[in-house]
Amino acid sequence: MQDTLKNLQLSYVDLYLIHWPTAFKAGENPFPMNDQGGFIPGNTNITETWQAMEQLVEKGFAKAIGISNFNIPQIQRILDLPNKVPISNIQVELQPYLPQDELVNFCKSKGMTVTAYSPLGSPGNPFASGDEPKLLEDPVVLKLAAKYKVSPPLICIRYQIEREIVVIPKSVTPSRIKENFKALDIKLSAEDMQELSQLGSRGFRFIPFPPLKSHPEYPF
């Protein structure tokens, strides 16, 4: 953590997350892989990692801590600890094809804020096979974009905002980053939200992260 703060030229971070609930075999390579292209698991339990994260808050290196890509049973294992520091935030893939209502409602009921990554369907996903559906070309998304005279990404961003979810669309293009803020000016109707929610029946995950599938703590 001290190396991270040094690299960032900060004395603390506002929020620090466990990125995946999957520990890897310790060694010089932080991401050891086997001959089959999967990560080699380590012996560290997610509860041990969480307790170490709590110490970062106690030492003032982080103001808050959270998790990412955890499922409900994994979250419950942390909640069952005699926690000194609450889980402040969870970051997971959320987009109209994967609303994850049960997970979202569970986390909110436990006082966590929820952050949506890949809210646009991850069009630049390096693990994409090419057969994935194109969320930004979905007829419902295109219809609503035309209705409000905005781009399809803004509809997907606003969908999460209406669900009281933090949205972090990825972009390195200044003009697109600026345009994303226009989602704050849109107000989707209850009928619009219902149409978008119905897309969730696909249950399609754009970021299944194949190299982790053989890991015993694979969360999906």
TrEMBL record:
Q: Which PROSITE patterns match?
A: ALDOKETO_REDUCTASE_2, ALDOKETO_REDUCTASE_3
In this chain the NADP-dependent oxidoreductase domain maps to 3-199
Q: Name one Pfam family in it.
A: Aldo_ket_red
Q: Which GO terms describe its molecular function?
A: oxidoreductase activity
| Protein name, as recorded | Aldo-keto reductase family 1 member B15
Q: What is the lineage of its organism?
A: Eukaryota, Metazoa, Echinodermata, Eleutherozoa, Echinozoa
